[in-house]
Amino acid sequence: MMSCSLLRPFTLLVPMVLAVSCGGGSSGSGSHGALPEPGAVASMGATHEPTILVKAGEKIQDAVDRAVEGDVIGIEPGIYHETVLVETSNITLVGMVQDGRRPVLDGTRIERGEAGKIELRPDAVQARSCDNIVVEGLRMVHYQGNGVVVNDCNGVVLRDLVADKVGLYGLYPIGCRNILIEGCVVSRCSDAGIYVGQSDGAVVRNNECFANVAGLEIENSSHAVVVNNSCHHNTAGILVFVLPNLQVKKGEDTVVRGNRVWANNLPNWGAKGSVVGQVPHGSGVIIIAADRTHVIGNEIWDNDSFGIATMSLGDMNLPGELDVEPHSDGSRIENNLYAGNGTRPHERLGVQKIPVGLDLIWNGQGQGNCWLEPSAKSFPPELPRCK
User: Fold this and answer.
1) How many CA atoms lie within 13 A of 177 on its CB side?
2) Helix %, strand %, coil % of the chain (to 5)
3) Count of domains in the chain?
4) Which CATH number goes with the domain that contains 76?
5) Is the peptide bond before 380 cis (omega within 30 degrees of 0)?
6) Rounded to two decimals, what is the model's pTM?
7) Is residue 325 part of a domain?
8) Mind listing the pLDDT tens digit for each residue in 331-375?
9) Where are the beta strands (DSSP E) in 265-331?
10) How many other C-beta atoms can be found within 10 angstroms of the C-beta atom of residue 55?
């Protein structure tokens, strides 16, 4: 887990930012200022006395299959070539980290034919239609789908996980409620390192995301708090999106607070034709069609295209008709620290005649958006001021 002072480029910080980044205090006005606490979710799996022990050479899935509600499955260090499926509520999977070694889920599968073809399993861990699930202490590598994917669960804790080159998404709760993702490191995912989709109530804190297309994404979700994360050397740092043609048609009341977002200049290697594949490299934070997003007290620097962009779905090349309201409304962007953004913008911005060196971009659409960033360079030069 990262310290409060990790990799800060500024020698003088506003006291408010320090309080926010370390998880204490509050600032800002209106309902945006309050940080919802994860509550009981944070204590799930906090006591890890294993009731079932998996040793190196054994199968994690065998332990999951015989587990009952309330079991804690302890996994000793070793390499496990499998996909683990959890469909029982109140289960904890905890990697037992010993002398810096942790259990590794490795998706590599070698076909024993003449060619010895190497294939990758789909996901490392799948959990579906179950409640109060904890996954902690694992390292995951070499999958083609995702690291941890959790579908339709209430009460999800993903803690102290390392996911590297696991496919599209590193940590992927979708259609869930009451989520806590903390202390994880996610890298080299071809969509988003950490993705919260079509969910309600999430706290994403103290994580590091790098070398992904998008570091961290909140999509068609409400009441999410993204706090004290480091998102760097991705194509884009943090995305807050509402996209069409999904079951959930809105995304509201996300707080992006006290994060460090820097040097997100990796060329976009996302799938052609995908939404994330259109994101310009050099993007710090992007808000598209989400409502009442509050971006406050973050440090945003050295992103080649811009620091924060507030946009609409019309700015993207999406096929078909939109079934969601396309504009970002009620965004509040204030008291962030900026340095060195927009110095080498993506060619798409040049075509739109957007000037160089921008911290803030707004397409001029949407209602009730406001900024309180007196020292930031913006396009347009005058932005509605927060009261």
Assistant:
1) 4
2) 10, 40, 55
3) 1
4) 2.160.20.10
5) yes
6) 0.89
7) yes
8) 999 999 999 999 999 887 755 677 899 999 999 999 999 999 999
9) 283-288, 294-296, 299-301, 306-311
10) 10
